Amino acid sequence: MENTDHMRSVLIGRGYLPVWMNTGQASVLKSTREKFDLIIMDVEITDQNGIEISKKLQKDVQTPGVPLIFITPAKYEDKLLHMFRPGEFDFVQKPFKYEELIIRIELHLALKRVQEELKKSKEIAEKAAGAKSLFLANMSHEIRTPLNGIVGMVDIMRQTQLDKEQLEYLDIIEISSDTLLMIINDILDFSKIEAGQIKFENIAFNIREEIDNVKKLLAYKIKQSEFDFSVKVSDSVPVLVMGDPLRLKQILINLLNNAFKFTEQGFVKLDISLEGIANNNYKLRFEIEDSGIGISQDNQKKLFRTFTQADTSTTRKFGGTGLGLAICKRLTHMMKGEIGVESELGKGSLFWFTAVFEPVVSGKRPESPKAFVLTPDYHLNILLAEDNDINAKVAMLCVKRLGHKVTLAINGIEAVELFKEEHFDLILMDVHMPGMDGVEATQEIRRIEKESGIGEGIPIIAMTANKFNDEVKLFLKSGMNDHLGKPFKPTELDAVIKKNLNLKEV
Asked: CA-CA distance, 402 to 325, in Å (whole number)?
């Protein structure tokens, strides 16, 4: 390189510490032993072509991705233009001005600093997100575990002889536990949406049947209310569509619950219509209108924001997390729709949202809902692995209520030993147990089956209060067949047993 002494003095004058190499081989060797912030290379280096040397440098240097500036005669310019990438490769043409070279050096070093800061910020954000997910998963498990005992015992107690006063008390317990579960689900759903863990199904379903299911889920609240509730589905709405019925019901239940909460007398209406057809897809419009307390114009601006309600008095009087409408907004957008509200204080509200659904392709039809019988005439031998005394009692009572025999193992080690000693039709496996957890116990059972030449292994159902997708995938990857989230009801337990044993309904 021409006038190397002058260039060295210019760089030192700018506060840099240049290290000078006279050959390409020496440059490669030096770069593998020391870290550099930037490399300047003459294309016509003494022993070989600088472009070829640069390939070795980019591959073997201590600092991967270090910016490289070529100093080149005009004849190499076209070739270097193809290599040019901001922050990685650049060049200055001979004869060059030192001011131009310094500007390019400072530009690339600034870009490198920004990239490093962004990388560091990303790592910090990922660690924070990981810590948040872990915290929520742990809290989910800790809260759902005792809640499982409450929800399970409510269903079991309803099977016993109770007087009118006791049934009233039981209703209060059930409503309170359902409300608590709804709050927990809101927090976890919002966290999953933020983490990009929400997965949408695309299955054929009957709109009118799903609306009937919503009415059934809300039947108790409707019965206890003093307003009229009506549903109208326009004839233009197709019978069958492709989409995610679970997420649709989640939005509807959230909006209807809000309408019920803020309406003491009058009416609540649900209207469904076809807004239009675009690209052969149906755009449906859902409207929930009520004659409740209404919302002022100022407070309407606060709706659909996270952890926000119309005002503090709303939280005090009606409760809630302030996440429901934010979740509805996110889910609606994920269904290629929009959501909004029309309201006037003291004159009720109309919440609306749209969602896009595909037409049902020939041959794809939704399965009819199955009514599971709690006292079938078949008897299974079920192994339950559960270390929590209350949850064990609830699960055992549920299994017995379904007419099956159940044997309890208080940890994974005991579950494996019982599996070796006795024939079981199915295993209900708690995931979090001391000593040997559910995942380890499952892997050991699968190993025993493999060594014994058993082709189709025993169905193992993971039971856990953690419903995060990544955790569920881990359970299934370990050899488990299905997942039953806590808290669960006897009907849900019955359904998962029948599903995994391919049993017919009685």
From this structure: 38
Contact 39, 68 (CB under 8 A): yes
- Cβ-based neighbours of 256, under 8 Å, separated by 6 or more: 214, 218, 268, 270, 288
The structure tokens 């919002």 sit at 190
Instruction: Please enumerate in sequence order all residues whose Cβ is within 8 A of that of 18, keeping only pairs 6 or more positions apart, or say none.
Output: 7, 8, 11, 12
Say if residue 181 is exposed, middle or buried (CB neighbours under 10 Å; 0-12, 13-18, 19+). Answer: middle
Distance CA 372, CA 498 (A): 9
Burial annotation 415-451 (CB, 10 A radius, 16+ → b, else e): bbebbeeeebbbbbbbbbbeebbbbebbbbbbeebee
State how far the alpha carbon of 267 is from the alpha carbons of 235, 286, 400, 442, in Å.
23, 17, 43, 53
Measured at the alpha carbon of residue 494, what is the angle toward residues 170 and 169, in degrees to the nearest 5?
A: 0
Cis peptide before 95, with omega less than 30 degrees from 0? yes
pTM greater than 0.90 (yes/no): no
Mean pLDDT in order along the chain per 10 residues (506 residues): 71 81 70 78 67 65 69 69 62 78 84 85 81 70 78 82 87 78 73 70 90 84 87 93 89 91 91 92 95 87 65 46 78 92 90 94 53 55 92 90 92 94 94 89 93 87 74 83 85 87 62
End-to-end CA distance of the chain: 90
Q: Output helix, strand, coil percentages for the chain, rounded to the nearest 5.
A: 50, 20, 35
Strands (E), 157-299: 203-206, 226-233, 240-243, 265-278, 281-290
Phi first, then psi: give them for residue 382, nearest 5 degrees.
-115, 135
d(CA 146, CA 326): 28
The separation between CA 129 and the C-alpha centre of its own chain, rounded to angstroms, equals 12
Residue written as tokens 């494996």? 416
Residue of 492, 467, 469 lying closest to 395 (CA atoms): 492
CA-to-CA distance for 435 and 413, rounded, in angstroms?
A: 7
